[in-house]
Automatic annotation (TrEMBL):
Molecular function terms, GO-annotated: 3'-5' DNA helicase activity; ATP binding; ATP hydrolysis activity; DNA binding
Family annotation (InterPro entries): ATP-dep_DNA_helicase_RecG, DEAD/DEAH_box_helicase_dom, Helicase_ATP-bd, Helicase_C-like, NA-bd_OB-fold, P-loop_NTPase, RecG/Mfd, RecG_dom3_C
Function: Plays a critical role in recombination and DNA repair. Helps process Holliday junction intermediates to mature products by catalyzing branch migration. Has replication fork regression activity, unwinds stalled or blocked replication forks to make a HJ that can be resolved. Has a DNA unwinding activity characteristic of a DNA helicase with 3'-5' polarity.
SUPFAM superfamilies to which the protein is assigned, alphabetical: Nucleic acid-binding proteins, P-loop containing nucleoside triphosphate hydrolases
Keywords from the named record: ATP-binding, DNA damage, DNA recombination, DNA repair, DNA-binding, Helicase, Hydrolase, Isomerase, Nucleotide-binding
Sequence similarity: Belongs to the helicase family. RecG subfamily.
Annotated protein name in UniProt: ATP-dependent DNA helicase RecG
Domain Helicase ATP-binding: 286-463
Organism annotation: Lampropedia cohaerens
EC number: 5.6.2.4
Amino acid sequence: MTPAIRKALDKLGLVRDIDLVLHLPLRYEDETKVVPIAQARDGQTVLIEAQVQSCEIQLQPRRQLVVTVQDASGSCQLRFLHFYPSQQKAMAVGTRLRAHGEMRGGFWGRQMVHPQLRKADAPLPTALTPVYPIGKGLTQPYLRRMIVAALQRITLVETLPQECWTHVGPPPVAVPDGAGTQRWWTLAQALRFLHHPPPDVPLQTLEDRSHPAWQRLKVEELLAQQLSQWRIRQIRQAHAAPALAVRQRGRKEEAGELPLHAQLLEVIGFELTAAQRRVVEEIAADMARSVPMHRLLQGDVGSGKTVVAALAACICMDAGYQCALMAPTEILAEQHFQKLQAWLAPLLQARGKRVAWLAGKQKKKERAQMLADVASGEAMLVVGTHAVIQDSVDFRALGLVIIDEQHRFGVEQRLSLRNRQRDRAAQATGDDALEPHMLMMSATPIPRTLAMTYYADLSVSTIDELPPGRTPVVTRLVADSRRDELIARLARQVRQGRQAYWVCPLIEESEVLDLSNATATFEELQAAIPDVPMGLLHSRMPVAEKQAVMAGFASGALGVLVATTVIEVGVDVPNASLMVIEHAERFGLSQLHQLRGRVGRGSAASACVLLYATGDSGKLSDTAKDRLRAMVETNDGFEIARRDLEIRGPGEFMGVHQSGASLLRFADLGTDAHLLEWTRALAPWMLAHRPDLAELHMQRWLGGKWDYLKA
Ligand code: ADP
Ligand code: MG
């Protein structure tokens, strides 16, 4: 094997024999029978066998080799625009040959352009010919040979003998038409079949992957994923965390009679919704156990996750442990800090404790003081960005980590974060360090199928109710051509005391462009309505300036806030009731929903305008319109997440830049939910009763990646 070929194979991930046998055909060609030339339909790809009548180079309209061949039924031409003298020789007049290609043209001018040539009279293959995805540097025949060889070499131990599934019931595989197909395939049978199916197989069942062989393969893949998630969960449960039981009374030496969590309920100024009370109970029950909690708190935008997080933090602090709250952006962390500080600082102060703030751009001295307070335990609650808290903070006794907007993090990131926290704890306190509990919050509800796959190692709490008194946000689609009209209406509303967000287009590749865009819009709006005080917020501004603008908007001094997507998550200004999103067609649905969730938080009727650019055609593409229409049709975050997943697929939906390996290659969560359910029932049984097969299975599917997840 040449280094170039090695490289091409590596690029396709074809290293081990198992990789090769799992590299499945894109489609198939039928070379199992010879079709008489006269019977080949226009556009049909066929194998013909015929004798060369003439072979000549034509120069008009361009140089090409034109070969006329004839069989008993008729004749046609074979055309080659690129050819070697050797090919010309091989097609000398009188030679019999086979040609495989697409028949084109009517009765008089039938031809095949660049057919593949085969020797005549050789035995015909008995199976369909696979056509594989190949990259540069590989040819079909070469890869075919490699895969055939790998199929011969490999021993595929069956990791799913019937013994494994009798207790969960038979596998729910689809049965295509025709008798004799209803049986359970071994993996080896399924793979051999898919590489070389017999010519009579209904091709449709291979294309739509409903054939039992395909289903068998998908079950394998889904099972590997379920097994690994269960294993991760088991490994985690073998670790110890501090048991943080809910304290009913304050500590004797503390000022308040009541524990923090009860005091917090007195100062927030509203009653918890039933859903909030339920999720707090779920979280508290987890934290009371000495097994690390790993829970996702999901709730639509505005459902009130912050106060739930604060209550969890209080339960943790009541038990004498510190709590860290991390957010993905500085502005969001800042908002959390403001809110928690207002609620908790007085209560903590009475106990001689405090809330600490840690961010990237902070004065050295201030930061050093914060770090010292965290290390001494004086700072009981630490709020900051992920990056800062993960990298540089030593806690005296960390009991709970709260992560906001976790859907941005893949499984790997979550694991590595947890491991780092644990290592740090181990360094600080000796060998048998306790691991903190983890609570992750997300406003993007995870659709059920995704929750069962990529997030199967998480427990989930859902706030499925909004606080009372909210008015639903009315959403409208408006073409950018009506921009002036929109600005005039906006001005009228703001002059009446309402506040508005104006979100600028997202330009993925370039922060600089993002900025110039936001600045231009800001200037445009200011020029159009000079009497309305306005603020501009973008990611490149110094933190102090950002804070000043946010404060101005929160206090009502600014009527309009022009912003890049920095306000995408978490910003909470109840008086803001208007939202304009420019170039809405460039955003994902979940993102739009998050943005829209910034309004409708107070009692005023709120509106969200999705401005879309129609481009040169003057029209928005149908899919873009469908997407945006979903926003108009529903305010339900679950429904939107479901559609978003449908449109974008799991990788993009989760916002993870996938290596490819961690996403499903064969199964499709849209069509294969029943297979997923089945493997989900199967996985724990296998781990408990056939750990040997389970391990083999994971090794086969996840390889080195599995070792990493275990570590
Ligand atoms: P999100 O879930 O999007 O993070 P927040 O926690 O920011 O939502 O809450 C949105 C707003 O609703 C905040 O102003 C918060 O104080 C308020 N809120 C939360 N829970 C309740 C409740 N039970 N009753 C009334 N208002 C509430
Ligand atoms: Mg929030």
